[in-house]
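Pasting as-is:
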Amino acid sequence: MNKPLPTEFPDLQLLKLGGSLITDKTQPRTARLQTISRLAEEISAARSKNPHIKLIVGHGAGSFAHVPAKLYGTRQGVRSQKDWQGFVEVWRDAVALNHLVMKSFHEVGLPAICLPPSASLTASAGRVHTWHLDPIRSALKVGLIPVIYGDVIFDHQLGGTILSTEDLFRHLARNLHPERLLLAGLEPGVWADYPACTILLPKITPANMEQITAYLGESNGTDVTGGMANKVTQMVELVQQLPHLKVLIFSGEKSGVVRNALLGDLPGTLITNPPAAA
């Protein structure tokens, strides 16, 4: 039987508010402000119900930073002066969306503090290279909610790149050992028959991943960070490394689902690595 990894923060959860959920990905730079406000209220309600929740929130870039990122190919690398101008445009749009999210959080009294990835970490070949996590640890210890987001990153090999919220969460999970990683988007989970979307997979494990790979689709709208197929592959790899982690992919579109997920519900598709039978 696998022994639980030691953790500094019992009850720690990582919650992503997907770009498809908080923006209209078919319309450039269009935030879904009512949805963002509702999600802030649901996070606040969950914390009121269970004050012991430790939470890190991340959010996607949606129709903001993905637009210039695709135009300039920023995720693939940054070399020329034109590329660096694109790097700044992606950064600007990511920050603009983050300001809207933070405004909604503060309006409902959430003690949220943004710790921008572009200012605190470096990458190498598109992966986290160094990330000083003491500010995140300090925020958690005093009951604050660290907020991060998909962002431009200086990269030792590529010059610059973009790391998605999932990229960042993978690194945090390996270092902080959360109990649950919640990915809230528009889709109600992972479909077994994409793009028909009539059969929802309740559970994905390393054992059945190969069977469903052919059915995994990409995201609707502009998405430079890989869509659903990349997301599921990353999360299956992560639960193999962290067997006690539970990952949920679900829709945050319906009122109350994010609140209930933070309080222990299992909506959508559960990605887990159950222990082998004796």
